[in-house]
Write a structure and sequence with these properties.
Strand content: under 5%
Helix content: over 70%
Structural class: mainly alpha
Largest sheet: none
Number of strands: 0
Order of helices and strands: HHH
Length: 98
């Protein structure tokens, strides 16, 4: 059972890493959207490409409220929920299987 336990634990850690990278990209993209000179920089485009993995599907369901786009806030809440629920559940399951 330790093989399955280690697999679940490794899967949880990799998923947690992807969640943290996406969370950082969403926050950084929202902050950089306020700064106009960085609109066409390569750094901004790569951060936006990573952030749009989650933001683009959310924007289909959540329309902007006037000039305010609340999808980064919803994405952050969703990522925090996934980290606290899914990753923690996988880690607890891995610990119980040992």
């Amino acid at each position: 059972m330790f093989v399955i336990s280690n697999l679940l634990y490794a899967l949880a850690r990799v998923l947690q890493l992807f969640i943290y990278i996406e969370l950082f990209a969403v926050i950084l993209s929202a902050l950089l959207s306020w700064i106009t000179p960085f609109r066409y920089s390569m750094f901004r485009q790569s951060v936006d490409a990573i952030a749009n993995i989650l933001l683009k599907p959310l924007r289909k369901f959540i329309p902007p409220i006037g000039p305010v786009d609340i999808t980064p806030m919803i994405a952050i809440l969703l990522l925090v929920f996934l980290d606290n629920f899914l990753v923690r559940t996988l880690m607890d399951l891995a610990v119980r299987l040992r």
